[in-house]
Amino acid sequence: MAETTNGALLDVRDLAVEFDSRGGAPARALRGIDLSIARGEIRGLVGESGSGKTVTSTCVMGLLPTPPARITAGEVLFKGRNLLALSAEERRRVRGREIAMVFQEPSRYLNPAFRIGTQITEMLELHLGMRKAEAFTRATELARLVGLGGERKVLASYPHELSGGMKQRAMIAMAICCNPSLLIADEPTTALDVTLQLQILRLILRLRESFGMGILFISHDLRLVRIVADSVSVIYAGKIIESAPREELFRSPLHPYTRLLLLSIPAARNRGARLRVIPGRVPDAQAVPAGCAFHPRCPLAEELCARVMPESREHGLGHAAGGHAIACHFVEKKWPD
Amino acid sequence: MRFLLFVLKRLGRLLLTVLLISTIVFFVIRVIPGDPALVIAGVDASKEDLAAIRAKLGTDRPIGAQYLSWLTAVARFDFGKSLSTGQPVTRMIFERFPLTLTLALLGLAISIVLAIPLGILSAVRRWSVWDYLGMVFSQVGMAVPSFWLGILLLLLFAVKIRLFPLFGSGSIRHLVLPAVSLGFARAAVLLRLTRASMVEELSREYIVTARAKGLTERMVKYRHALKNAMLPLVTMAGIQLGYMLGGAVIIEQVFSLPGLGRLFLTGVYQRDFSLIQGGIVFIALVFSLINFAVDILYSALNPKIRMG
């Protein structure tokens, strides 16, 4: 393979993004993110709101508004090419064609004035040079594939005529229409109710099977990530603090933040028990604490944590799959009760 | 089916509006001091003459009966005969209306041509030269009264440079200057609205989607944003046309055009009650019809509100 980085589909290296704010200190939205996705892999990206999930995906898409945003360091390697070095026109050609995106609220992210069919076929015509009739046939297939049924009626309808779940299916059909190798799903089920969430997750899994695309699945909900992701990265205050294969992460989370996150998931068997919450809140990107950004909320924190930022290290327990990386000074430390 | 219901609903609203206006006009006219019989016969007329005229006009009958016959007359689109010329009011109106309508439509066309492209450009290239140009244009346009602009245009293009005729009517050339002075002020308003609408649509989430789809900036702006931005402008253009018809009344004076405005103004000067009554109801009807047409057009363009 001519590509570098052991064939990773996407390899984000040390990506740092700042937002200039009027008069104040720049907001450090990303403080050196490392994130990689292999071909056909589903990588979950978990974090609270404001932790930098969306900035990451926007940056990979090349849709970050600069200014006010500024990419201060790092690279975004896609199939070995640094996307950040491409021209605007080259990046546009990648978008939708090779890297596609599904958004959170389909009712706001679909254009209300165009029929569903048109919103799909315009991409096919633009990126793949299809003729109208050909594109329409393909759109019909796609509609069937994502569970919209193959009827003309669906393609001829406007977004407001469809239910929330159908809208999200339409959005997904749009995203996969050019057969991209990377799909970014930014909280794709947050706007839907629970039964629909599961249907959409299953659809995403099925599409991965049939198309083999890598997927960046962004969510604040660990339960959803547990269902779909092969591997999970946890982001906190613009930095990945733990990254591991799914089983590994859920079986033995090592970073205090991840552990607290897992403890805060309400479980049916703990019905009636008090829900654990993590005290404090995600720091403001304009005032990220020195040292480990999590130390003010961390039950394990010591003086060192406030001073020195922990580097991300492989936690070598001899896993063949490897790839359990944690950024914490006190991984081995006993958990207080 | 739903669409038909919608059309019927709007039609009902139109009829109700016209009924309401007719009623208000009828009573207001009767509250205003001044006896039409006195106007016709003159102050020195004998009591018998006045009584005869009143009987002929029907103003001696009880108010309820007068109101009823007024409504049936309106329904038949018959506003009686002019008190000053003796001609049927409806015929007088229809003789003058084409000129006023042409003037208003021309004014609308001019304001659209001036406003929409510049408004779109201002929104797409915010804070650029085009945007500032648009701002200056709309400030000036809103500040300058159209009759004053009309006089200015006459002085410049009809007196100094004899490009257009000074007065008279009959050709499209006679209508150019009046239409420009009429369209200019409305263009200023339309420009602001176009810009605002476009700016708003460009900030919507579906624009992010359009970019994420890898569409060209041209497609994102002039296809995805523009189609949505144009929807409210259809309504606005319709309302503008209504204003144009009203504004034409003054502009016709400036350019001595024999349109509706002149006709109604003369009617007011001469206390020609049937002409005034008919005129107001007619204008109200035209206004309502424009709104009706705009509603239908808007819902045809935007299927989302057909439910309404």
Determine the oligomeric state from the structure.
heterodimer
The portion of residues assigned to helices of chain A is 25-40%
- What spatial form of chain B do the alpha-carbon principal axes imply? flat
Mean pLDDT of chain A, rounded to whole units?
A: 85
End-to-end separation of chain B: 13 Å
Quick tags:
heterodimer, A: 337 residues, alpha/beta, Rossmann fold, 8-stranded mixed sheet, 4-stranded antiparallel sheet, 31% helix, disordered N terminus, B: 308 residues, mainly alpha, MetI-like fold, 78% helix, flat
Write the layout of secondary structure elements.
The complex is a heterodimer of chains A (337) and B (308).
Chain A: E1 10-19, E2 27-37, E3 42-46, H1 53-61, E4 69-78, E5 81-82, H2 88-94, E6 99-102, H3 106-109, H4 116-128, H5 132-145, H6 152-156, H7 164-176, E7 182-186, H8 194-211, E8 214-219, H9 222-228, E9 231-236, E10 239-245, H10 246-251, H11 256-263, E11 313-314, E12 325-326
Parallel strand pairs in A: 3-8, 3-9, 6-7, 7-8
Antiparallel strand pairs in A: 1-2, 1-4, 4-5, 9-10, 10-12, 11-12
Chain B: H1 2-31, H2 36-41, H3 47-57, H4 63-75, H5 89-124, H6 129-143, H7 146-160, H8 173-202, H9 205-212, H10 217-254, H11 260-269, H12 273-301
Helix pairs in contact in B: 1-4, 1-12, 5-6, 5-8, 5-10, 6-8, 7-8, 7-10, 8-10, 9-10, 10-11, 10-12, 11-12
